[in-house]
Structure formats: structure tokens, C-alpha cells
Amino acid sequence: MRDQKANDPAGLMKLLWRDSVDIVPKPGRKRGLAIEGLIEAAIGIADEHGLAAMTIRGLAAALHKPTMTIYTYVSGKAELVPLMLDTIYQRMDRSAPADRDWRDKVVRIAEDNRRLFERHPWAADVSFGRPSLGPGTIAKYEYELAALEDLGVDDVTRDSVLTHILVVVAAVARASANQDLEVRSSAQSDEEWWRENAPFLALAFDPEKFPLAARIGAAAGDALGGAFNAEHSWTFAVDRMIDGIEALIGRGRSST
Amino acid sequence: MRDQKANDPAGLMKLLWRDSVDIVPKPGRKRGLAIEGLIEAAIGIADEHGLAAMTIRGLAAALHKPTMTIYTYVSGKAELVPLMLDTIYQRMDRSAPADRDWRDKVVRIAEDNRRLFERHPWAADVSFGRPSLGPGTIAKYEYELAALEDLGVDDVTRDSVLTHILVVVAAVARASANQDLEVRSSAQSDEEWWRENAPFLALAFDPEKFPLAARIGAAAGDALGGAFNAEHSWTFAVDRMIDGIEALIGRGRSST
DNA sequence: GACATTCTCGTACTAAGTACGGATATACGT
DNA sequence: ACGTATATCCGTACTTAGTACGAGAATGTC
To answer: How close, in Å, is residue B95 to chain A by CA atoms?
Structure first.
């Protein structure tokens, strides 16, 4: 997962911005396939089976090519992921109407990103550190900054708000995705799990030792149908986020 | 990373709650080491080099045992991680003073968790899905719920608020940790990176095509000293969170 | 058509997880 | 004291995955 051995940032940038560079015919053998198809296939595999299942070997097989051919196109798995990410960013919907309340726009950004993570759950697992500044990434950034125009905050704050939204959305999405994956990969039903672990769960939810955990855990589990309810977490997080932003800009303006 | 092949929840619970179960002497060879030491060593390796570097083979070597001996203690890597997590939860500080404003308490929870992720960056990478209900996890839950006592919200909401805090903190921590890792693993200085990628960065921050990105990206980068500033993200996120919670409970009460 | 250049991909090495099974040590009943 | 059941130990070996290397194949240019 963390194989950034020979990280070659310049090579990556060249690939990310491949469309903006003129291609003059050069000597040498022609390529057997387009890198777009390769990235496409990689995204498809990752969408269905997770980033871990997106192996170079599997990718090559999906493309009916021998394994090592992949390395003609990308330097390795580490380079492929940013390319995949920039590609799905590139394709995001960027057609939100402009004549709305700022709240609607924030929610829209959040939901668009949520949808992204629903379609491509692996994206939530990708680092946020120094993002790869590809065309999709920048286009997304530009679009989302525009949506925050009428917050009426200074540039730096606008960037902060956006970063914050994206971090929170990614976090909730990641939690949901992981839960999905676990549920799906567990052959055991919740029912069965409960029965099998009953003795230990009695220890965990012992009202003597952990009164609050027992009471509130039960209440929450009851109300939300499990330890973690993706939909509820989502709504809750978005509402909190809106309120938090409102307080921020309300401070700068007179009120809202 | 995602090897939950033979997930044996009952076995995991038995290990998590090992201290609460009487150990009666049984026939069979004695163990050569305590599982605590094994978990300890695993945590140490993961702290220093990340979860990916915490290999069964490496762990065995650190303990001066042959590889396969590890499997006498845990069923595999997948089982080890929840044990590590519960252990670090168990050790968290739970001595916050009770006579404070709810805000201070929320901040305290957030900071305690942040500290956890600073000491154990790998923890931020671990799934949030169905958590393993070990003694450390429950103790932490109990303690944190108690800190939210005087929010004056119902049980379900209290749980939601806590979950939300933890999700947000984990998200920011993860972003920071990943960035740290990338910076450290990149042999290249920022300066050098900038120079080498200048032509592409000109494309990315083209004021014609991406005016907002160019302007705001520059402003933010300038003000925060990079694309992502961990400290600033942290403060911003916590402030937003507090405001968001305030709005929530302010709605229930008359005001604050 | 020779040449430099680029792409193709078979071979092979490395790292890591872990299934399997024989060897070994221990508690307990006789 | 001894046999038996049982738990632990760990060497061997198989599997999956990433990828270094280098010989050969194809292609634009002079």
C-alpha cells in the first residue's frame, strides 16, 4: 500500500498533464494501448473489489496483456493511483446552479463528493497529503472554490472551509465504505455474531462497570440499527458542518 | 491490508477480553511469551514505520522467534490490528477534570484523540466500521460519553455527537499523518520539487483557465506555508466542530 | 536501409502471508 | 511413575504481488 520507493514526481506530472502536451511523432515502437484504457480498467477493478485488489497483474490480465507490459505505461502501482484519482475528479459533475443560498451550495459540494466516494470507495482510502496537481484536481478545486464565492470570507478562509468540507466528507465516506466492505466480507449475519459473542458483549455492556456505554450504546444501537449508521452519520455531519460554517461567517457579517 | 479471509470474531473477542477470563491450567505445552509483549512489539513497529511495515515476519524477528510462532498467538495479521488498537485505547489518559464548560470537555476529547493519533499514526488508517468491542474500546467510550454529560442532549444524540467528534478528529489526524509520511519518504525538498515541476504547475495555476485556483491557491499556500497545514487544519476543524455542536444544543436550550 | 530510440514482455528475484504437519512439552488420571 | 490427550512450537513450502533486467521487436529519420 505504501510503496513510494522510487517516487518520480516529474514523471507523474507529465502523465497527469498528458493532454496538454503536444505529441510529436518520435522514433520507436508504437504503443499497444492507450493509457486512458489502462487507467479506466484500473478504476473499474478498484471500484468493484477495492484498491488492494487492483493489482498490476490483475490489471494486465484484464487488458489481455502480459504483466510487465503495464510498466511501459506507468512506473508502478504508486503512480497509477494518482492518475486514477485525477481521472475520477475530472469526471465529476460541475453543473450546480449558481443562484442559491450558500448552504445549498455547500451541501451540493458535500453531496457531489459523497457520490464520488460511493462510486469509487477506494478514493476515500487515498492519502490527502500533498495532492497530485493534475488537471482534474485543479478543475475540481476551481469549481468548488467558485461555489463558496458568496460566503463572503477572505481567500485563505475560503480555502480552509473547502479543505474542511472535503476532509469531513472523506472521513464519513471512508467510515461508510469500510463498514460496507466489512459487512460484505463477513459471511456471518449480525444475528449470528451477536449470539456467538454474547458472553463477551455482556462484559462490554456491563451496566455496573460501564453504565453509560451500556445505556447509550443500547439506545443508539436501537435507534440507528447498529453501531454505525452511514446515513445518519452523513446527515449529522453535514448539519454540524453547515452550522459550523454559519457561525464562522456570521461572526464576520452582522448575522445570517 | 484487507485480509479478513478467515475472520473469527469469537476468537478475537476471546483475546480482547483475555484478562476477564479465568485461566485454569490445562494440558499442553506452556507459551514462550505473553501476548501482551507481542502486541507491544507490534505497536512499536507500527508506530515507527507504519502499519504496512508491521509484518508478521518482522514482528517475529523483533521478538527473536521464528516467524510461524506468531501464529500460535494470533490467527493472523487481521486479528492483530484490533488487539493493538484496543491496547492503545486502554492506555489513553482518562483523567480530565469534570468541572468545566462543555466546550473545554469537547476540546479535551478531541485533543486526547489527536494525541493518540500522533503517537500511533497507524491508528488513523484503521477502519471505523464495526469496531471490535474490547475493554479498551468500551472504557474509552464510557469515558467520552461521560465528558458529554452536560451537553444536555438525549442519549442517541450524545452518541452521535461523540461519533462525529471522533470521525472528524480521525480524518484530520489521518491527513496530517499521511502528509508527514510523504514528506519524510520523499527525498526531494519542496524547493526542488517546485523547480522540477514548474512547467506543469504553470498549467495547473494558469490564471486564465483557473483564476480562483491560481489566486486562492497561492494565497492559501503563502499563508499556510504549503497545500496542507496540519496545525491550521486542526484548529479550524475543532472550531467548526464546537460551533456546530453549539448550534445543535443551542437549538434545544434557549441559548448559550 | 542503417541507426537510434522506444516499446514489448519472458525470466526471475524479493517480500510477505500463511497452510501443514511432525516434534515437543505439559496436566491429569491411573 | 507412566500413558494419553492436548496445546504449543516452528521448519518447510506454497501462494500472491511488485518489479528489476535485458533481449528482441517495431518505427521515425537521415
So the answer is: 16
Question: Is the CB of A194 less than 7 A from some atom of nucleic acid strand C?
Answer: no
CATH for the stretch A9-89: 1.10.10.60
Query: Given this model, what pLDDT does residue A105 score?
Result: 95
CB–CB contact A220 B183 (8 Å): no
User: At residue A68, does pLDDT exceed 90?
Assistant: yes
- Region B60-64: mean pLDDT is 97
What CATH code would you report for B95-185+226-252? 1.10.357.10
Q: The CATH number of A94-185+226-252 is which of 3.30.43.10, 3.40.50.720, 1.10.357.10, 3.10.180.10?
A: 1.10.357.10
Average pLDDT, rounded, for chain A = 89
Distance of CA A110 to the CA centre of its chain: 11
- Distance from residue B238 (CA) to nucleotide D19 (C1'), in Å? 43
Express each pLDDT in B33-50 by its tens digit. 999 999 999 999 999 999
Number of A/B CB contacts below 8 angstroms equals 259
Give residue-wise pLDDT tens across range B178-231. 877 777 766 666 677 778 788 898 999 999 999 999 999 999 999 988 778 889
Mean pLDDT calculated for residue range B111-119: 96
User: In this complex, do B9 and A128 lie within 8 Å of one another by their Cβ atoms?
Assistant: no
- Are A228 and B156 inside 8 Å of each other by CB? no
